[in-house]
Amino acid sequence: MFDKWRQSAPETIEQKRRKNQARRKKEKRRKKQVEKRIEAKTNPSWIRAFFMELPPFRQWPRKYYLTLLILGLLFARFANLVICGPNERKIVNEEDRVVGASAAAGVYEEKTITIGSTGAMIMHSPILEAAEQGDNIYSFDSIYQYITPYYSAPDYMTCEFEGSICTDDYEYSGYPLFRTPESFAFAIRNSGVDMQMLATNHIYDGLAEGVTHTEQFFRTNNIDNTGLRANKNQKRYTVVDVQGVKIGFFDYTYETEGSGTNINSIEVDSSVADLINTFDTGNLASFYEEVRGIIEDMKTDGAQFIIGNFHWGEEYQLEPNDTQVQMAQKLCDMGVDALIGGHPHCEQPIDVLESNDGEHHMFCIYSEGNALSNQRQELMEEDMGSGHTEDGVIVTLTLHQDTEGQVSIVDVDALPTWVCKVTDEDTGERAFYILPLDNVENIETTTGIAGIYSQAQASYDRTMAVIGEGLQKAKAFFSGTDINAPDTAAGQSTDASTDAAVTVTATPTPAADSAENTTESTDGSQDISAGDAATTDDGSSYDSDYDESYDEDYDYDDDYDYDYDYDYDYDYDESYDDY
Predict the structure, then answer these.
(1) Structural domain spans, the chain
(2) What is the pTM of this model?
(3) What does the pLDDT look like over 242-288, one tens digit per residue?
(4) Does domain 107-376+393-450+463-504 correspond to CATH entry 3.40.50.2000?
């Protein structure tokens, strides 16, 4: 028995040794775990510290539940943005904002906005030459330095762009083919104009390629426009959200006689004919049907107020013709809220039209004249020597949205403008400026341009003689305001005008004591340097007649017959560029 015990004893001792070793290791591990917990408590990470401080879930205070709810909503919103993408969000914001707000709240937000418009921007050859910087680079920004505060004042501003955008692969030109560099449209946009109306009688000056390039330019550069579309599937109108109010715009120009679609007596290529908004005065029934569909579609898209822009009428006539009056009345009957006209190169009256059923009223200005051109008074004696071709106007409509979403005109303002041309006697360089005429008495001081007071005052008087009576009628009807004096009729706030204009320095600045270096000479005629010619006509067709004396004074080709090369290789007498 003793021997048996001795044989088994070493195994028992070894077992005990192993058990003790295992116990010591376990105790060591446990000690390390305790040390880690102590370290975590004394110096925890911010996440661990946050959860360590939290009481049990059922004991959470109310602010903890609120925090958890906000975090959940933020996560859900982020997931929605990732899934939907930017395009869907934009569509919801732009197309459903008003409907969604009204559905949620039951009413629309009551608010007031302003919509401004001005006349045609026309790049005649002298304007192109004055903007040249060399190396086929052009800058037109200086033209707008005095008018920019006024174009920027309304919540949304529009104008007519009269021409075709061309690349530098083709020669830029003024009349008779207004083929403008892209910088011209950029300068207009930078001046505060939000939308440019493209349907004019010069949209086809660059032929089919010019039409497609013009559309692509405005679209790719995100410049609002209407009157031209990329393809037949696109809409003929544009609906814009202005401070939460949806305004619908559509724009048309007249056709001339000829086969197919003709603009300025040029047959438009079939590839682009349906991309330009045009109307045929010989087939107005078809046009009215098209406009009726446009109005319905705009309202479906949420338009609360509809503005039509029309390139129409007879050039150099201060009164609308019968067709204009007939079309305006029909458009009023169809529910158009405001009608803005252009093309005559002079202003035509303002009026308030009533629909035949007496339920609707429409503001109308038959023509806003030239916002920018080189149709100087001394060069227009044959067609219109009165100076009206130098005059323009900014019309501002104040619109009010009520709690039911109805938008109506509550006020109308009009500010006369004038195109000032300055010629430096020493260098022969010319500069053009669009000047606001709200402070004519001090215009030489605010602009730094000497010798322009009498011309500016004459321009103001001409404009108010044409639109003053209609403006008074419109203000009385829409706002109940009676205006008795032309100065009041201008109706433009000076908040963004006089002070802003003073800070801009005219370039060049003529010397006040130099009678030769002003735009008006001592005998009352305008100072034009040798070779300083400008356009004398901007006709609806290219075979307009001119004063024969121009042939001698400005030496252009008597046999010039305005033939067009449809391969875009138009060749004309270079001496004609002065016009």
Answers:
(1) 2-42, 107-376+393-450+463-504
(2) 0.70
(3) 999 999 999 999 999 988 899 999 999 999 999 999 999 999 999 99
(4) no
